[in-house]
Amino acid sequence: MTKSDPLDDWLSSQPAKIxxxxxxxxxxxxxxxxxxxxxxxxxxxxxRLGSSGRYAFHLGTPDDTLRRICSWLLTHGQPDVxxxxxxxxxxxxxxxxxxxxxxxxxxxxxxxxxWVRLADLIGSSSTAEALLLSIEECLRAQHEVPSEEQLLxxxxxxxxxxxxxxxxHHANWVRTGRPAxxxxxxxxxAAIPYPDGDSLLxxxxxxxxxx
Length: 211
Fold this sequence. Notes:
Helix content is about 65%, strand content about 0%.
């Protein structure tokens, strides 16, 4: 006898009208996150990670489960509703929400420049981890990286946008063999604000500026 899959059963049981509104999808998705996740053996750990990452919650949902939920959304959803869903997930700010928003952002077709869309989503409370999740998914989906002019424009904007520029360029820099930075980028990355002490952003900066 074929063993049923709890997540597939749950998703397939949802009525078609659920895909007509982002707010309805938000509730379904929140309930889907823990389906099939082992009885929260690591719950205390995920609570600590959620707190340290400034997420609203962190349930420990595996990456493959999030990808299955994303696939279900892309298969049945409407582009305008899914576009709003990306915004709503980012705003709710659970760790799973941010990761699912990154998957949708990277894979939803015909929505324009994904990097500009990401820049529109972020704010002062956006964490480096949240940015890295989105950047990695966009690069994995083979979206062309922003131009140097765009990166420099972000460097001269808010701290959140400057950090976005830094992390995008670093991710692409590693993928392309760590080429030398242009003088404008070196100056731009050196001038943006960084947290005090040892930080991921500071280490990323130093890797590129010291190469």
